[in-house]
Each structure stands twice: as C-alpha cells, then as structure tokens.
Amino acid sequence: MLRFYFLLVSVFVCTLNAQTTIQLSEAIVNYTSTYDEVTDTSKGGFLFGFTIDDDATMYISANRISYTADLSGNPPFPVVVYIDEYTGVNGNGISEGEDILEYIFYGEYLYARVGASPDNENHNLLHRIVRIDVDETSPALVDITAKENINSSNVSDLFIEGDTLFYSDTVENEFDSDQEVIKKMNLSAVDPGETIETVYTATNDDLLSYTIHNGFLYTIEIFEDQHAAQNLVILKTALEDTTTPQETLISLTTDLFYDNLITNGNHLFFTEDTNDEVYTINLTEDQPSIETLITFSDGEEGPFDSEENFFLNQINLQENVLYVGANNDIAEKGYVFAYELPEEFTLNSDKALLPQTVIYPNPAKTRVVVEGSVQEYKIYNLVGQEVLSGNFDADQQAAIDIHGLNSGVYLLKIDEKNVKKLVIED
C-alpha cells in the first residue's frame, strides 16, 4: 500500500493496524488569516469545512471568507478568495452577522449551511441551507427553502444521498429538554422545506456525528451514567426497516469526543480533537474495535504542544483519498491534508463474493491486462479526475490501452467494486 500526495509521491509500507504520522509541513493546503481595516478584525484564518467538486476544485468555508483551491497541480495548492462575506464580493445573499459554516458538493451544485458568525452575539440567528451554481462567475446563494421552514439555529452536518438532504438539529421534547435529531428533506420537491421530517431521534444526551451508508445510519452518541461518567457509543440503525434492531458497535467510558464520522468500504472513519488523530473501525469484525489510522506531528519530538490549539475539524473522501481539515486557533491558520487509503480500507463488504481480479503488467507502459470476470473500467488520477473509461468485450481479452496517459500513479476501478493502484511508466 502506498501513501500519496497527489502528483507528489511519498511511499511507505502501510498495514491494517499500522498508524501513520503526517507532518504539519505536509499539508496540501494551508492559509493564514488576514486583517480587515474596515471592520478592525481578522478574517479567513479558520477552516469550518470543505468539499471537493468533480473538477478537482476544493471549496473551503473559513472565517468570513470562502476559498477555492485547484488540486490539479502539485501541492501545496494556493487558495483563492471565492466569497468575501464582509464585502459581498463574488457572493450575493450573505447578510451581516452571517457566515458560511459548511459546504457539500453534490451533482452540479455546491450546497452550504449559513448561520451566525462565531463572533456574532446573536447565536439564535436562524440557519439557512443554500445552493450555489459553481459555474456562475459571480456565485449567488439561493435558499433551497425559507429559513422559517428549517426554523433552527442548531443545524449542522449536511449529508446528501440521491435527492435527499439530511442534517442534524436540536429540538425541544415534551419535557422541555433539548433532544438531538436527524432530519431530511427532498431536494427534488418544488419546496424542499415542505418535505422536512425527522428520521432519527437520539436516545442519548448528545449526538456528536453521523453518516449514512447502504441504508444504515451510523451515529456517535454520548450519555452520562449515575456516576457522572461519560459513556460513548457508536450505533448502527436501519433507516427504513424498523424491524431491524439497533446495533451497538462500540461502547466505552471515555472523556474523549469523537466527531466527523464518515464511511468507506467496510470501515468507519472519525476524528478526536484532544489527540489530533484519525481513527477507524472495521465493520466486518464480530467485535469491532477502534484503531488509530493517522496521527499528526509538528516535526518536534512527541505530540503537538497543547498550547498550539491544533485540532481536526473535518474529514472527507474523494476516490479513496482521505482529506483531513484542521485549524490552529492561536496562529489563526487553516490546513488540509491528504492520505490515500490502503486497499483494505476501500473494499466493499461484498468483496468476498467477488472473483479475484488481477492486473498486469504493473507498472505498465502502453497496455494493461485485467484478468477475471470483468465488464467495465474507470481510471482516475490522484485528484479524483476520471481520465479514461470503457467496457470490455466478452469475446476479447480484457486489455486497456493506456499509451495516451502520462506517467504517474492512478487508481483503476473495475466494475465499480474493485480498486487497484496502477503505475504507468514512460
């Protein structure tokens, strides 16, 4: 298995339970806040969230500024101001005191959660969910529904699957206590806000994070027991089949707060701020356990100095590359790191039922043969761009002509199931 930073390649051996250390200097994107003389404040120094579109453009929501970064070159990738929320430059629809807090790209649009700025005293400002056409020269923020339909200042964690947008929220229950829920709306409706409904109600004190995969909802939740100890659980819940009992994957007593839950293949991935680490869980194990996948270092001996206030705040996946967003509050800096997942973290749960697929030669120069029962292929570069695709003729040998591709490292996806690393040489 190899670890890559796109076209800049760094190689090391990685096994399933090995943990990788990423140096702060290896960030593929980093930026620092700037001072605004008009408002006498700094802006753009933090990273709230980020997403990546189909053209390898990263969109970053920062403090009162949104950036873009073109990932098609060699890292580190410079950022360019996309929306200046103080001045309204290149962005219509931002009100005073609002901030873009989260981005998610899906289909042809960029979706964003807009709420109160962290420095805004009015934390009860209603959140909005907006859509942005990234092809527009001057991007406009268009509400997908009236904010009164969402009617909340606690929206977070946007997730889109098909035509359905999910988000977490906090509501008041019958006992006048806050209860955390997950809601959904249909984006294809004339007014998505009229389709909002609750799909899950957390039974514990706090819902820290969630993700959805193959019809199941995975949640990280915490509660305090009678001894005031904090208990953390990771739960698996069927979204549609109410007859399937909820499954507890992990249960432990800890003072840690896990967050930013995502899934890929047979694994869950999530972060923890105190230890500045990315963790994983193998869902195929009978008794899943938490394994450390990535740690971060500033190049000095030992862990980060806690006074640096470095913390992880988002992870994202794009074609088996794990992106990790981080902040340094003291220095007012934002970072994004990239890590190509080893193959065992990218395989689907039905892999055991699939015939073995072998590719050769690898490295290859002009032609690569795929051996096995296969029908189609797609080749991606390490920024997630599809560079070649096609179908195999059942009457011919499954071979791919690659003479038109530049030398480098690629990902070969076979029948949308198997992913192989392919090296092309001159």
Describe the structure.
- By secondary structure, this protein is mainly β.
- Helices cover 1% and strands 51% of the residues.
- The chain contains 1 helix and 36 strands.
- The longest helix has 4 residues, at 147-150.
- The protein is globular, with a radius of gyration of 22 Å.
Placed side by side, the strands forming the largest sheet appear as 3-26-25-24-23
Structural class category: mainly beta
Strand content range: over 45%
The percent range for helix content is under 10%
* Number of β-strand runs: 36
Categorize the overall geometry.
globular
The N- and C-terminal alpha carbons lie at a distance of: 22 Å
What is the helix tally?
1
Oligomeric state of shown chains: single chain
Largest sheet: 5 strands, mixed
Summarize model confidence as the mean pLDDT.
Answer: 82
- Rg, rounded, reads 22 Å
* Residue windows where pLDDT falls under 50 for at least 5 positions: 1-17, 349-355
